[in-house]
Fold this sequence. Notes:
The chain is of the alpha+beta class. A hairpin with a 4-residue loop joins strand 1 (15-17) and strand 2 (22-30).
Amino acid sequence: MxxxxxxxxxxxxxxxxxxxxxxxxxxxxxxxxxxQVTLIYGDPFDWxxxxxxxxxANMKVIYQEExxxxxxxxxxxxxxxxxxxxxxxxxxxxxxxxxxxxxxxxEVPTQYPPCFFKVPFLNPxxxxxxxxxxxxxxxxxxxxxxxxxxxxxNDPKGTLDWNSTDPSPTNFFGGDFxxxxxxxxxxxxxGINGLYFTPIFKAKSNHKYxxxxxxxxxxxxxxKEKFRELVRKCHDRGIRVMLDAVFxxxxxxxxxxxxxxxxxxxxxYADWFHIREFPLQFEPRPNYDTxxxxxEMPKLNTENPEVKKYLLDVASYWVExxxxxxWRLDVANEIDHQFWREFRQEVKRVKDDLYxxxxxxxxxxxxxxxDQFDAVMNYPFTEATxxxxxxQTINSKQFAHQINHVLAAYPENVxxxxxxxxxxxxxxxxLTRTDGNKDLAKLMYVFQLTFIGTPCIYYGxxxxxxxxxxxxxxxxxxxxxxxxxxDMLSFFKQLVKLRHDEPLLRGEGQFSFVEANEEQNYVMxxxxxxxxxxxxxxxxxxxxLQVNLPNSYSHSRNLWTGQTLVGSIELxxxxxxxxxx
Length: 581
């Protein structure tokens, strides 16, 4: 037994309350090292004749990556209190050892003070609770300036004809709220029930991440009444609306920053920003903190009470006045945790089922403990999926390991609402990642729409739009039906409908890999609950494939084609199957 590889902490992704009476517990061990793990647990105050009253639960490997197995058990607490140890049996020795908070023992220790791991008390407020509706949502990201121009009267000066040229960092095409309203039928027909808008507030740029006024709509999109109409008409169709909050930094023309430029150190807003010295300088690099090193985007000092109040007022205003359903938080990892704790309290006070989504590209456990965000943009999922399907740089087993690593990093109730994307306004489009190979792109979308979490489609991906790095990924939406890829659009409609029709493909179904075949480069994974299951097989290979189905699927139905299956299935090159038993 390689004891050095065994890891457990009674917190975060290793021990957490799943609901008001259930605790999830994970143990990490060297891959293949242990043959059995038993969780021994009880109430730390429940003793009989100087012996603790203990229960046992068999643990199972829920995720497996390149180096580690993750053993898992779900238990009901005893009087809402729990203490526990692990009984570990390896492949070579039949006698187990006991793993405790203070090391290893040959028998379960009973001395006082006890050396058990502890979840002292299951306080309901400590249970991670994201809005339940998110699990059932298929998001659609809209870059407002490029989706549709419904009202030319509010076009910025110099607006170009729609799709008349390639996008640049500075050109405008006149997209607005009326354009979105005009195409709500299209979005509803696609099966979309959540819209994520990049920033809509007054700003100079076409991307609007350089806010001038957080309380005003940018006039090129319309006014507040038009936005109110948009939200109302979305809600009438069962579509949620999420806005983009840029609280890490403001824009150059933000009034407080302009005051600092004018009055320097004597400005009453001098402490609203992180300024190292006066006067301000922009080149070669700014002498104040910014987003990256962009001088036009000065970083806000969210520890300043006035800044904090201003931004929290902004956050609550758009929820109270316009009934939005979510905030996506730009550059969320660069803002202090205390600000986000107060942000959560403020917006949840106004609307308790508001979705809080942070933009973080790395391990995000510190933000996902129930006191800050409901989810983050799941870029580790994105990279693993692109590596396997688009870049073809890893095989099926490596893909399964990478996805399992992502899942093992978080509690299950966090994974259930993770925001899964394949591309955005910040990245090349999915089809461009595959060098135009639509079959590979479809496989990625199949995985995304059948994976645990909430998927997001970047506008235009459903009609096979392409685009490289920013700004090329921000092209105008194509509305000419003859120029849209109707086959891809039909594929998306069927796939989204299937996700809506099958609860197992949404929040209700646990996820696990059944097989990851390196030689033929296919993956087989399952979504299941206690009563039923769905099996997905993806052939990421340029050769046809015949696969023997697991015994439990020997008589089953292909949900994609309607075909009845007996024993096995044949897949074409770069093909897939979604099977329900």
